[in-house]
Write a structure and sequence with these properties.
The structure is a single chain. This protein has 279 residues and is an alpha/beta fold. It has one domain: Alpha-Beta Complex (Spore Coat Polysaccharide Biosynthesis Protein SpsA, Chain A). 38% of the residues lie in helices and 16% in strands. The protein contains 11 helices and 12 strands. Strands 5-4-3-6-9 form a 5-stranded mixed β-sheet. The longest helix has 15 residues. It starts with a strand and ends with a helix. The relative contact order is 0.16.
Length: 279
């Protein structure tokens, strides 16, 4: 996509980071194609994964990062037996926690990124033209009601300066613009507060009562840091929805949705319901 001036103002170039695991191999090609076709200002598209999963985008091996899943588990539990049990459990959330840290460390690990990076979940598919900055150049963020009990307390333990309340909105929309200077400030504040690397502090602030569930959110941390520091942003209601099967893409495209997210667990639930119905 060319960069320059549109009828709505200057088009700011962005890079796109997509962490991906094997469970999202089905949606990854659509994710890449969609953001290239419909995302305004997209320059590079980079997939972070254990193995190279596509030739449609650049690949960064997750092994280049300064921590592993095993390191993360040990930092969460500080007990080898509990960490090992977590890694082996069919209910483990280690991959989900690990990919959050990959997103947070993108600027630290991947060379030559632009200052503005769209962090994009591998199961999220753009289906209509979408811009990420308003006419004044301010980054656009969605407001959502997807708030889980552990997210805000974890964010507050990690960054005590965050201004949060029980009525705080969520910024989770399965994609989010990160800016280099903001991320550097977050790293500096967290590491000064806890006296350790951000990824270790992130892990050690997880409430073990929630560790097998939704226990933390990198998106909430970043979004509420923007609000707390009163960094200029624009709120716009991009139209998006969680869907359970890819056959619904054309319908939501006709309805002018910007993007949809087709999570693996929803795909599996739908498949199971269909199998049970056919028995």
């Amino acid at each position: 996509m060319s960069h320059g001036t549109s009828a709505r103002g200057i088009v700011k170039p962005i890079d796109v980071i997509i962490p991906c695991a094997y469970k999202d191999m089905e949606t990854l090609p659509l994710c890449i194609t969609g953001v290239k076709k419909y995302g305004e200002g997209v320059r590079r598209v980079i997939v972070i994964s254990k193995d190279c999963l596509t030739d449609q985008a650049e690949w960064v091996n997750e092994g280049k990062f300064s921590f592993t899943k095993e390191d993360v588990a040990r930092a969460i539990f500080e007990n080898e037996n509990d960490a090992s049990a977590f890694l082996k459990s069919p209910r483990t959330r280690i991959g989900w926690i690990f990919q959050q840290l990959l997103k947070l460390y993108a600027f630290n690990t991947i060379p030559d990124l632009l200052d503005d990076v769209l962090i994009l979940d591998a199961d999220t598919i753009f289906i209509n033209p979408t811009r990420f900055f308003d006419g004044e150049g301010k980054p656009i963020y969605n407001i959502n009601k997807e708030i889980y009990p552990a997210y805000m307390p974890h964010a507050k333990r990690l960054l005590p300066s965050l201004e949060l309340s029980e009525t705080s909105n969520s910024g989770i929309a399965h994609c989010m613009l990160f800016h280099r200077s903001v991320m550097a400030a977050i790293f500096g504040e967290i590491e000064a507060c806890h006296g350790k690397e951000l990824w270790r502090a992130f892990c050690q602030c997880i409430d073990l009562h929630y560790v097998y569930n939704s226990c933390a959110s990198e998106y909430e941390i970043y979004y509420h840091y923007l609000l707390t520091k009163k960094i200029p942003i624009s709120h716009k209601h991009l139209r998006w929805r969680d869907i359970s099967h890819l056959g619904a893409l054309s319908r939501y495209k006709r309805l002018q949705f910007n993007f949809v997210s087709c999570h693996a667990y929803l795909r599996e639930e739908r498949l199971m319901k269909n199998l049970l119905r056919d028995v």
